[in-house]
Amino acid sequence: MNQSQFNQSLLAFLETSPTPFHATANMAARLALSGYTQLNEGDVWQVQAGGKYFVTRNDSSIIAFKLGTKTDALRMVGAHTDSPCLKVKPRAVKTSQGYVQLGAEVYGGALLGPWFDRELSLAGRVHYLNEQGEMRSGLVNAEEAIAIIPSLAIHLDREVNAGRAINPETQMAPVVGIAGEESFDLQAHLASWLRRRQHDVKQILDYELYFYDCQPPAMVGFNQEFIASGRLDNLLSCFIGLQGLLQSDADETAFLICTDHEEVGSTSCCGAAGPFLQQVIERLYPQVEERNRILSRSWLISADNAHAVHPNFADKHENNHKPMLNKGPVIKTNANQRYATTSETASLFRRLCDASYVSVQDFVSRADFACGSTIGPITSAELGIATVDIGVPQLAMHSCRELAGSDDAYSLFKVLKTFYNRVL
Ligand code: ZN
């Protein structure tokens, strides 16, 4: 696959993955097509050396692995499936001034401004009772523009450009229609979206629905230097990790771990701070002594996008650490362990970049700014595994329309492929 084919499939993955549920289903389908067998956590596992498997939890986290014939170390790549967004409330339907609106909570640290004046759609997971009275679930995606959050006209707030705060409760409920004779029935819409996908629905029980921006991902720039899309943080890393794993043909034991809830701290049954990965490893290597020996020799590359320097806000970066788009993946370091990178793991990553003919950049937060974090330190602390935090540089992180360079995803793919394939 060349860079332009790679980017085209990345755009398709981003577009068809509006929620962590859809991202997980898309990755599962791709793995199954490539000969990976799905394991169910409730079954007895019969895995074999040389086999390829994947397992999901909560339909929103996925661990895929390929077992070598002689395992003495695990090579792991980790990323997260969730992105900041607006999540529909349980009793969402309300009316104001004759408009129908759906109340929403803010999920994660979203930049709120970009959500205004965009055509929004809805997607997520719905639980329902079927005609036999059994509980089932299905993914839904309205796929068309059904909501919008209109801005207030500047004539009604002349000070707005001087920095008005946005109240997410009172100013951001998406408008979905004009109130009519009949009351708006969200459940009926959910049932019809499920039926469209051949679900036999009798009664809707509950849902997890997220608004997303309808504008499809696109290449931007006079020379197509950029990729603009929602959810680049961090579906871009999920996609790159998946392609790296699918292209690995060495007899090494390789893992890809993509978990939900990173944007809200990772503490959940399927998040990186929960027991999902640990339990999978325990099932594969039940002997404590052997497992600890393997883990002590293992590596985790935690892939999550990094802050590129912004042309209009260059002073937000420290002078010697200004990652640029299209200049290669970024090693992220923090003295206070907000990133898990050590000199040993950074050195491993530098060597991998070198062996892949990819340039590498460095990021550290300004000493007077708080530093973000990711799944790297959490997984490293849970398993005691040597970890490097890296990522593709991007702008507009946590906007509903983010920006990355069109060369960087492919560069990181080459590095991860080397990691999965090469003698370390
Ligand atoms: Zn992230």
Overview of the molecule:
This protein is α/β, with parallel strands linked by helices and 424 residues long. The protein is 25% helix and 28% strand. It is built from nine helices and 20 strands. A nine-stranded mixed sheet has the order 1-2-3-13-4-14-18-16-17, with helices on both faces. Strands 8-7-10-5-6-9 form a six-stranded antiparallel sheet. Helix 7 crosses helix 9. The chain is globular, with a radius of gyration of 22 Å. It binds zinc ion. Residues 80, 233-234, 262, 304-305, 374 line the site of zinc ion. Zinc ion is lined by residues 80, 233-234, 262, 304-305, 374.
Q: Would you kindly provide a brief summary of this structure?
A:
This protein is an alpha/beta fold and 424 residues long.
Element layout with pairings:
Elements lengths: L2 H13 L4 H14 L3 E2 L13 E6 L3 E6 L7 E7 L4 E12 L2 E9 L12 E11 L4 E7 L33 E4 L7 H11 L4 E13 L4 E3 L5 E4 L2 H15 L6 E7 L16 H9 L3 H9 L2 E5 L2 E2 L22 E3 L10 H13 L5 E3 L11 H9 L2 E6 L1 E3 L6 E4 L2 H14 L3
Parallel strand pairs: 1-2, 4-13, 4-14, 14-18, 15-19, 16-17
Antiparallel strand pairs: 2-3, 3-13, 5-6, 5-10, 6-9, 7-8, 7-10, 11-12, 12-20, 16-18, 19-20
Helix pairs in contact: 4-9, 7-9
The structure holds zinc ion.
